[in-house]
Each structure stands twice: as structure tokens, then as C-alpha cells.
Write a structure and sequence with these properties.
Blueprint: E1 2-4, E2 13-16, E3 21-25, E4 32-34, E5 47-51, E6 55-60, E7 68-71, E8 74-78, E9 85-89, H1 97-101, E10 103-104, E11 107-108, E12 111-112, H2 115-128, E13 140-143, H3 150-163, E14 168-172, H4 174-183, E15 193-198, E16 203-209, E17 212-213, E18 219-221, H5 225-239, H6 249-259, H7 266-273, H8 276-282, E19 284-287, H9 300-344, H10 351-360, H11 366-388, H12 414-460, H13 462-491, H14 496-509, H15 535-540, H16 546-566, H17 576-581, H18 585-590, E20 595-599, E21 606-610, H19 612-615, E22 617-620, H20 623-629, H21 644-651, E23 658-663, H22 672-680, E24 690-694, H23 701-710, E25 720-721, H24 722-728
Parallel strand pairs: 3-19, 5-13, 13-14, 15-23, 23-24
Antiparallel strand pairs: 1-4, 2-3, 5-6, 6-7, 8-9, 8-10, 11-12, 14-25, 15-16, 16-17, 16-18, 19-22, 20-21
Helix pairs in contact: 4-23, 5-6, 9-11, 12-13, 13-14, 13-16
């Protein structure tokens, strides 16, 4: 049996650095050491066991040091290397992945079902308490759930009496024992109250009157600390769906205890948090561990080596480019020689044979041959000049000549007619290129003139120039936003825009079809006579006008680049890309973003860089009050049950005073006592005092109350002996003020 030196309930350490930030530091796991049993004396005091769903607490009655507290979990598996069986209990079950996967808890929800795990817990407790005899010769006082099933009680009694031969066993309800420790003996009037017990899987309310618990009127709410931790985990997963670190339920339990609060008026709190400033004040940060990028500064020697490597790589690339250029030049020279040799055949053979030879080489005629030779010759000369370091001069292109176009077809043979047709096409292409060149030159001159006028306007009146561009920028941004809004509206089939679109489609479909025989003055709707008629098709088109949007984005990018360059008041935060990603102030306060938008050369886009430390943060604001509010409004978490306020209202008539006692770990939540007091105040007479009393130590007072009661003579009247167990069975218990009533005598 092994125990951890650090008895903290989790294998991650959580620390509050300030009032607003909770740091979670990574930890490899619990350290292990051999358990040292206590010295076993001759006395036989009762053993007090608080068998909770989360913690297993045990110790001898009357112990001043308090109980030993462990995680109520055990794990049994075989070690891979040695194949030896290993049994772990408590926090050691979180040692590694194998032990965590094989861990079991005695409770499943509110029911005690896994008795193998319970037996492991008993073994651990008795060994730790130093019991070295064959049997446990101590009376045992143990907790059980309110209205515990007889099956669970029978198997627990069987385990204690048969396996450990305990002389006697008594069962008590933990919340009543906590009340006993905080108020005194059960006969005192201070015991009269409503006892609210916050457990792991449920919350129970027990009325106590005249020092006796009225278990017939007790109520249970199916929401406890475990469900609260799960709800907080789910809310965090929904709020941060791509969170880089793993958030565990155990971490959420500690976050719940440290950061969550109960609001006196939840609806009023929500209205208050609707203000972004209040939301920021209520925000709490949970910082998870992260690995910072390694940004070590390089020395001068490393920088010099890196620069030399870059220069060497550049030289190699230049050599490869030169080699490739020389290979291309050699290939072009060879092609030129072949074409010049081909041209010599014109004078050595018939024209028809020469034309056939040209076609075999992929040439349409002599003109194509000459143009190819001229192009290769120019390319070779240009390459040689470049290698020699001479300035390149653009060769003057001669105007092409088309001699056959003016010759009648009657004076031409068949091949010349084909050549004439080809020359017609070449001339048309040449004229089209010439026209396009002239238009391009005119556009260039117009652009230069526009830039000159804009420069003069910007120089003479910079404020007016910037105002004009900002107006154009605002119009384009509004146009793009309207297009996005229309696209989003059309995606909703119940929106007004989509309904109007369907009406337009129905109107177009309901038009009477034109008949084959035209009637005089009939079926003439004149659709299309006005150019605006065709806008109906643009209106019913769901797809966004991509061409128009691209033009708008390009124009917007030009305007933004000018403003960023010349207007100091226009910053990257004013660009369309930043405005598109900007969230409302309330949404930014609810979930702050650590992505920093930067300008991208592509129009309308941004490059976002993440803050690694910020990416590993959970911001909790509304969740801090939403999770505990489920105890009072279970419907907010989808639980079909009455809230704590309604349950207390139904049970107050059974008590004689306005006192409420709260116990259990969730009772430590800030504001819980005040909220309980606020719930019962309107239900009582104005002159009746109202008190909501919280246990001094809600986690350990149940065990302390049991230890206190087990040290009295009255404890002997609450136990069932082994002889009575053998006679009546494990389901029967004695009826007393701190135990269950079911099957009691």
C-alpha cells in the first residue's frame, strides 16, 4: 500500500497569484512513499469512518488531530515490467494513465455499489491505523446516505461483520453529525433547524424539530458538487472549443471553490454584467501552463555563419542559373543553324517540295520560317550581350508586310491563296495588338494624369483629400456590410429577405405562358423594355456577386493603402479587415481575444498572430455565478426539480424556528449563506429572527461530530452487534436520532 506525501486532491497545483488570476502549474503526479502504520495500543476506541463519494476520512474516536483524509478511489492492475499485481488507494490512483484507467470509486452517483473498492478503502484505513490483529476488535461508526438502499447497507454490514469480524457497527447521516458538532447535544433547542447538506452528487434538506430529524419530510435535489464541476467544464468547453490545454474535472472543482460565487439576486446580477465595464471587473483569469517559444538571441559568430551560408547558397543558385542559361543558348544556336540550313533548301528543290519540308518541321510557310530565324537570332544576340555585361536594347520591330493581300485571287495558285488567308489573319491580329497597345498607352497616360492631379490635390488640401477618401472608404465598407447582411439573411429561410425572394420567384413562375399564336394586343407584358426589369434576377440570386465584391475589395485596398501612407489619423485598426474581425465591447469583455490582427497584402484579409500565454487562459465571468445558481434554479441546467428555495419553503412549516444550517464542501462557496438567508426571509413573519448558520468546517465537521458522539455512552444504544446481525440480517439497524429510519427497530 502506497500513500502520497502531498495530500492535495489533485496532481496539478493551483495557486492564486492575485485576486483576479488563478495559476495552474503543471505537476508530474503524486510522489509515493511507503505508508507507516500507527502504533497499535491496547485500547479499543471506536473507529469513525466518513465514507464520502469524494473523500474517505477515518480515525479513532476522540482523536484531537482529526481524521486522515484520502481520495475515495482505488486501482488494481498488473505492472507491465514485473507482471506483479499492484493495489493503489487514494491520490496514488492518479500516478499514471494505467492507474487512472483502472481506478474505481465505491459510489456511483448517490448509490454505494462497488464493494471491491470499499473493501480496498477499509484495508487501507485499518492498516494505516495500525491494526495488526486478525480481526478488527473496534466498534465502527460509519456514515451512509440519506434513505440508503437496503442492498447497500446489507453488503456493507456483511463486509464489516464477516470479513473483519467487527464487534458492532452503527450508521449515521453525515449532515446530522455535522449539526451535532456545531450545536451540541441532540436534546438542545439549537438542533431545531433546516439542515441543508451539499453532497457530491445531490443536495438534501432535512427538517429537525425537537432534536429529532423528520426524515419522512426530507427532500433531495439531484444536483451536487460533481454536477457543478461538470457544468463548469462544459461551459468552459463551449466557450473555448479549441483550447490548447486539457481541462480536467478535478481542476474545475478547485476553480469552482476558489472563483465561483452565489449572487443574492441572479437576474439583477445578469443585468449588471450587461455593462462591459462591470463584466471586465467580474472577470477572473485561469492561467494554464504553456511552453514559451524558444527565442534565443544569436551571437555575432552565429549571425556571420548564417550570412555566409546565405551567400554561399546564392552563389550556387547563380552558378546553376548561368549553367542553365548557357545550355539554353547552345540549344538556340543549334536550332538557328538547323533553320538556316533548312532555308538553303529553297534554292535546291521545287517550291512544292520545299513547302512539304517546312510542314514536316512544323512551319506553315516561308514567312514563319523567317520570323522564327529572326527571333532566335535576336534572342542569341541579347543573351550574348547580357553575358558580356552590355546594356540591353529593345530591338526595333519592323512593321510586318502582307504582300498577297492586294493581289486578286485569280492571279494566285492554291498555295498562295492559303498563304493570303493566313496573312489576313496575321494582319487582323497585328492590328488588334496595335489597337490594344494604343489603348494601354492611353490608359497609362490617363493614370499618370490622375495621379498628378491627386498629388496636386493632396499637396494643396491634404485634409480635404483625406476626407474625400474616407467618405469613399465608408461607402465601400457599408456596401460590403450590406452584402454580408443580405447573405446572412438569405441563409435564414424565415427571414424577411428570404420571404421576399420567394415571393418574387412565385410571381415570375405565375406569369401566363406565351401562346404559339400571337394575338393582337395580347400577351405583351413588355418585360425587358426597361433595363431595370432585369434586376429581379439579381434580387432572387442567393449567391453573392463575386465579381462586384472583388472589385470593391480591390478599390478598398487601394484607398486604405493611400490613407495608411499619407493620413496619420488612419491606422490599421480602421481598415475593413480589422473592422470585420472586431467584436462588440460586451463580447470582447465576455471572452477577450489574444489574436493580434496585422495587415495582409491581399485585399480584405488579415494575418493573425496568437499570444501563446493568452491562448492558455480561461476567462470566467458569467460562469462564476451561473454554475452555483443551479442549486436555486435547477431548470437553468436542464434539471427537472425544485430549487433549494422552493424546497426550504415547503419544509419550513415543519420546524419551529427560522434557522437553516448548511454543511458540505459547496457550502464554502462565497455568498451561499447569504443567499439561503435571503430565500427564507420572505417566508417567515417579520418579527421572527432568521439565521443561516454555516458549519465551522463544512468538510470535516461530520467526522468530528461522529467522533464526538462515539465517545459518549449514548453511542452504545445506536450500534447493532454481530449477534443481532446474525439474527436479523444486514439490513436491520437501530433507530436513533442521527440515523436512517428505513428497516430500523
Amino acid at each position: 500500500m502506497c500513500i502520497p506525501r502531498d495530500l492535495s486532491p489533485f496532481y496539478t497545483h493551483l495557486d492564486m497569484d492575485d485576486d483576479r488570476t488563478l495559476y495552474i502549474a503543471a505537476h508530474n503526479g503524486p510522489a509515493l512513499s511507503s505508508m507507516v502504520p500507527l502504533e497499535y495500543g491496547t485500547d479499543r476506541p471506536p473507529i469513525v469512518i466518513d465514507n464520502g463519494a469524494t473523500k474517505f476520512r477515518y480515525g479513532f474516536a476522540g482523536s484531537e488531530s482529526g481524521p486522515y483524509s484520502w481520495l475515495n478511489s482505488s486501482s488494481r492492475y498488473r505492472e507491465r515490467k514485473t507482471n506483479k499485481p499492484i493495489l493503489l488507494f487514494g491520490h496514488s490512483t492518479n500516478l499514471d494513465a494505467t492507474s487512472r484507467a483502472q481506478s474505481k470509486q465505491p459510489y456511483e452517483g448517490d448509490l454505494l455499489l462497488n464493494f471491491d473498492a470499499l473493501e480496498n478503502a477499509f484495508d487501507h484505513a485499518f492498516i494505516h491505523l495500525g491494526i495488526d490483529t486478525d480481526t478488527v476488535e473496534h466498534p465502527i461508526f460509519m456514515t451512509e446516505r440519506l434513505a440508503s438502499p437496503l442492498h447497500s447497507r446489507a453488503l456493507t454490514s456483511e463486509l464489516l461483520f464477516e470479513a473483519y469480524s467487527a464487534p458492532s457497527v452503527a450508521y449515521g447521516i453525515d449532515s446530522l453529525m455535522s449539526l451535532y458538532h456545531n450545536t451540541g447535544t441532540p436534546n438542545q433547542a439549537l438542533m431545531d433547524s433546516l439542515v441543508v447538506s451539499f453532497n457530491t452528487s445531490s443536495t438534501s434538506v432535512i427538517p429537525v424539530c425537537g432534536g429529532r430529524a423528520l426524515l419522512g419530510h426530507a427532500r433531495r435535489i439531484p444536483y451536487g458538487g460533481s454536477q457543478a464541476s461538470e457544468l463548469l467544464l462544459k461551459l468552459a468547453q463551449v466557450k473555448y472549443p479549441s483550447f490548447p490545454a486539457k481541462v480536467t474535472k478535478e481542476q474545475c472543482t478547485t476553480i469552482l471553490h476558489k472563483l465561483c460565487e452565489v449572487a443574492p439576486d441572479y437576474n439583477e446580477k445578469l443585468r449588471e454584467l450587461a455593462d462591459p465595464e462591470k463584466m471586465q471587473e467580474a472577470d477572473r483569469i485561469v492561467q494554464f501552463p504553456y511552453v514559451a517559444p524558444n527565442e534565443t538571441e544569436k551571437t555575432e559568430e552565429e549571425l556571420a555563419r548564417q550570412a555566409e551560408k546565405k551567400r554561399e547558397a546564392g552563389r550556387r543558385l547563380q552558378e546553376m542559373a548561368t549553367q542553365k542559361r548557357l545550355e539554353k543558348l547552345a540549344q538556340k544556336e543549334k536550332d538557328l543553324e538547323d533553320l538556316q540550313a533548312l532555308r538553303e533548301w529553297k534554292f535546291k528543290e521545287k517550291k512544292s517540295d520545299f513547302m512539304y519540308r517546312l510542314r514536316m518541321e512544323g512551319l506553315d510557310g516561308e514567312e514563319m520560317l523567317e520570323s522564327t530565324i529572326k527571333k532566335l537570332d535576336n534572342d542569341i544576340k541579347k543573351a550574348r550581350k547580357k553575358d558580356a555585361g552590355e546594356l540591353e536594347e529593345e530591338p526595333q520591330q519592323e512593321e510586318p508586310v502582307f504582300p498577297l493581300l492586294d493581289v486578286p485571287d485569280a492571279d494566285l495558285d492554291e498555295d498562295e491563296i492559303k498563304e493570303k488567308r493566313r496573312q489576313k489573319l496575321l494582319k487582323a491580329g497585328y492590328e488588334a495588338r496595335l489597337k490594344a497597345r494604343k489603348e494601354k498607352e492611353a490608359a497609362r497616360r490617363e493614370k499618370e494624369e490622375e495621379e498628378r492631379r491627386e498629388l496636386e490635390e493632396r499637396t494643396s488640401d491634404p485634409v480635404g483629400w483625406a476626407s474625400k477618401l474616407k467618405e469613399d472608404h465608408e461607402l465601400l465598407v457599408d456596401k460590403l456590410k450590406l452584402r454580408e447582411k443580405r447573405k446572412a439573411a438569405l441563409a435564414d429561410r424565415k427571414s424577411t429577405a428570404n420571404m421576399n425572394r420567394m415571393k418574387s420567384i412565385a410571381n415570375l413562375a405565375s406569369d401566363e405562358p406565351a401562346t404559339k399564336k400571337r394575338k393582337k394586343g395580347g400577351n405583351s407584358d413588355m418585360f425587358g423594355a426597361n433595363d431595370e426589369d432585369w434586376a429581379i434576377y439579381r434580387k432572387i440570386n442567393i449567391a453573392v456577386e463575386s465579381s462586384d465584391e472583388e472589385d470593391d475589395l480591390q478599390q478598398l485596398a487601394v484607398i486604405e493603402s493611400k490613407l495608411l501612407q499619407h493620413d496619420p489619423d488612419f491606422t490599421p485598426a480602421h481598415t475593413y479587415a480589422s473592422l470585420k474581425h472586431q467584436k462588440s465591447a460586451l463580447l470582447s469583455a465576455y471572452r477577450p481575444s489574444y489574436d493580434q490582427a496585422e495587415l495582409d497584402p491581399n485585399p480584405g484579409t488579415t494575418t493573425r498572430s496568437r499570444d501563446i500565454e493568452g491562448a492558455h487562459r480561461l476567462h470566467l465571468n458569467v460562469e462564476r455565478w451561473r454554475v452555483p445558481e443551479v442549486w436555486f434554479q435547477p431548470g437553468t441546467a436542464g434539471i427537472d426539480a425544485a430549487g433549494l428555495g422552493e424546497v426550504m419553503a415547503s419544509l419550513l412549516p415543519h420546524t419551529r424556528c427560522g434557522r437553516v444550517f448548511i454543511t458540505g464542501a459547496p457550502a464554502l462557496t462565497r455568498g451561499m449563506r447569504e443567499r439561503v438567508e435571503t430565500c427564507i426571509r420572505p417566508l417567515l413573519d417579520p418579527d421572527m429572527p432568521v439565521t443561516a448558520l454555516q458549519a465551522k468546517d463544512p468538510e470535516l465537521d461530520a467526522w468530528r461530530g461522529m467522533s464526538q458522539f462515539a465517545s459518549t455512552e449514548e453511542f452504545k444504544t445506536a450500534v447493532i452487534t454481530k449477534a443481532e446481525y446474525e439474527e436479523w440480517g444486514g439490513e436491520r439497524i437501530r433507530r436513533w436520532w442521527g440515523g436512517n429510519w428505513n428497516n430500523a427497530f
